[in-house]
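[job 4471] stage=fold_predict status=RUNNING
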Amino acid sequence: MTQRYKTMIKTPTATIFFGNASHAVIPDVIRTTTLRPLACPLPVQQLFFQNQVHKNQGLAITEETRKNYTAHLVHDSDYLITHLPNIGIGVLTADCAPIALIDPRNTAIAMIHAGWRGSVGGIVLNALAHMNNLYGTQASDAIAYIGPCAHTCCYQIDQTFVNQLPGWAHAFVQNNRFDLVACNSTILRQAGIPAEQINLNTSTCTICNEKFLSYRRNSLNPARQPSIIWLN
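[job 4471] inference complete, writing structure tokens
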């Protein structure tokens, strides 16, 4: 189902950019450069993207580690967290859900690449736990934004897909479709983020909305749309 969404979301703590096909990035191109890979200017000195492997682990960009992660798409990581100013952390998607987390109390942020494997594998919980360990983030303080991704209107699946899901995730399967947004919003809520702090109006279906790149619509297109968050 196509709906309106905002490309840029500004909050008192951080700004989120949810790109579309007009901001397309080809991963193999940015793998060999540290230049800004985007057509849109961002008020950050450096962007960080890492190699997404559809799992549930991620990296923290700190003063100590940032020099190790300047090259794009080298280290396996499906989420990034930071509390550093003047940098942007991002993911590249084409149906998977980009999920931004903001901790206004401790001035920390995360960007998560949540495909169905990472989602049911606990990637949101791992990112929150990582933020808690480094920055003291409490889920009750966090604000979440789910970006453009495959919606239940178009996310058709088969029995092989269903057989790979844990039992609890079958609740998000109906009429041979998987509800990736509901799955992640439920996990966020059960993690302790209040429902009113989980923003779903920042998402739209990437499959039926041709303003977005979709692997399911065109698996031969290597481009991905970026989602980035940075501290103000």
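[job 4471] summary: The chain has one domain: 8-231.
[job 4471] exit 0
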